[in-house]
Amino acid sequence: MPLAHFDGALAVITGAGSGIGRATALALAENGATVVAADPDLASAERTVVLAEALGAKGAAYRVDVADGAAMEAFAAEVRNAHRTPDIVVNNAEIVMVGPFLRHSAEDWERVIGVNLWGVIHGSRLFGGQMRARVAALPAKPEKPNFGGHIVNVASASAFAPSSARPAYCTTKAAVLMLSECLRAELASSRIGVTAVCPGLVTTGIARHAVPPGADEARARFVARAERLLRLRSHPPERVADQIVRAIIKNRPVVTVNAEGKALRAVSRTAPPLLRLLARHSPAPQP
């Protein structure tokens, strides 16, 4: 069942130091939630909390590497002890890795799977477990019978489409989408909603942190091209945050954001051979 409002809700957001994570933290804060902003860059997370407090919300910042299972265990325990079990969890932290499959090392794969998939697994398992335990402890007729909590996992439109230029990224995002569908089925009986959000191109600074193979010159060319494309697309992260807020309220299972996200999902259902053809011509950075 949906969480219909956010007054007094506690929201945990990973990757909250910038981009979609920060925009989502502020959107939830503006709607009355207390935000726990987690990011590997503590100063960025603290800046998000300052902005949330300017909106009249309360908040706390934490430095967390979502790929580190022990760190996430400690973080989840700290949130519960210092605050309480969260009502909303947004697993947003991600990294982008581009380049052909055969140019990625085992360490490259471990890095992108660690953040993009294990980060979602850790956040969903630890906080989902807290939410379920809270529901189990409620009386037979609780005051809020429709409330259990909500987990949002930020995937990508890349979850619907193969790409010869982004095999690691597409693989992890497809896994996040399927994990979210599985969790939704499992947690429904505990009145915990789960949503997978699949944005297309969004104007954030993530291109600057992408990991293409090759020399520094090739990396610089890739970043310049990617940032130019994102500027031309001009879809700010605040629009994604608005979709996330609506998805929580309506308890939607999958949300595709912007035109390319909706188009890729539709084509994946109706014309998958076309996506396979396009995947062969995905532009990849070359050293």
From TrEMBL:
PANTHER family: OXIDOREDUCTASE EPHD-RELATED (PTHR43391:SF12), RETINOL DEHYDROGENASE-RELATED (PTHR43391). This is NAD(P)-dependent dehydrogenase (Short-subunit alcohol dehydrogenase family). InterPro entries: NAD(P)-bd_dom_sf, Sc_DH/Rdtase_CS, SDR_fam. It comes from the Bacteria. CDD domains: SDR_c. Keywords: Oxidoreductase. One of its GO terms (molecular function) is oxidoreductase activity. The lineage of its organism: Bacteria, Bacillati, Actinomycetota, Actinomycetes, Streptosporangiales. It comes from Actinomadura namibiensis. Belongs to the short-chain dehydrogenases/reductases (SDR) family. Pfam families: adh_short. The keyword Nucleus does not apply.
